[in-house]
Amino acid sequence: FRIDFFLRFRLSNPNIRQWMVDNNILSTRNLHRYYADQILNITRNISVTPIVWQDVWDEHVKLPPGTIIQVWKDSSDNIEFNTWASYLNRAANEGYYVILSSPWYINYISYGKYNTDASVMNLEFFKYYEIEPLKQFSGSNEARERILGGEACLWGEFVDGTNLLSRFWPKAAAVAERLWSPAHVNNSEEAQFRLDIHRCRLLRFEKI
């Protein structure tokens, strides 16, 4: 996802193009910064804690103290940040609160294959389950406390009302257990049993 690509749609509107000229805004990136600044000013005036996608931070928008950055990309145009772990470290150590989503994009699909070295299938649940957000964290205990948790995300380019629930569940249950459990609760074989039961529960009661 690139900001330039997203904002290009705005530039198809001649009124927006003229407004940019009138206000000496010469690029889509500057337009994005302006938009983010206006939203942050609104949240500041009504005493609401803002949550921003990491793109806003990439664009060097001045963020008010207490802002929560949601890390969703695994890489960036910014050479300083090449993995989600790098973002997590930098943001928390610079004093921002962080929510992690990068490793838990439920709309990504891959086909499982049997792992002959283990008794579990190498399926997406286990890819999601085995992520440990703080494994590569380097920083003070104070900075660690600023990592609020994570969120499973599902984008809608190939999702609608016919497949929303089946695409999200039961994979999201693996993310939920990972985030609600201490780091030492990480046995995939034990989790497989619990997640299978939960899948049956969803099928029986929720008609997913």
Automatic annotation (TrEMBL):
Protein's UniProt name: beta-N-acetylhexosaminidase
Sample GO molecular function, one term: beta-N-acetylhexosaminidase activity
Any one Gene Ontology BP term: glycosaminoglycan metabolic process
Species for this entry: Rotaria magnacalcarata
Protein origin, superkingdom: Eukaryota
Family: Belongs to the glycosyl hydrolase 20 family.
PANTHER family given in the database record: BETA-HEXOSAMINIDASE, BETA-HEXOSAMINIDASE A
CC per GO annotation: lysosome; membrane
Residue runs in coiled coils: none
This protein's UniProt keywords: Hydrolase
Pfam annotation, one family: Glyco_hydro_20
Domain Glycoside hydrolase family 20 catalytic: start-end pairs: 12-182
EC number: 3.2.1.52
Catalyzed reactions per annotation: Hydrolysis of terminal non-reducing N-acetyl-D-hexosamine residues in N-acetyl-beta-D-hexosaminides
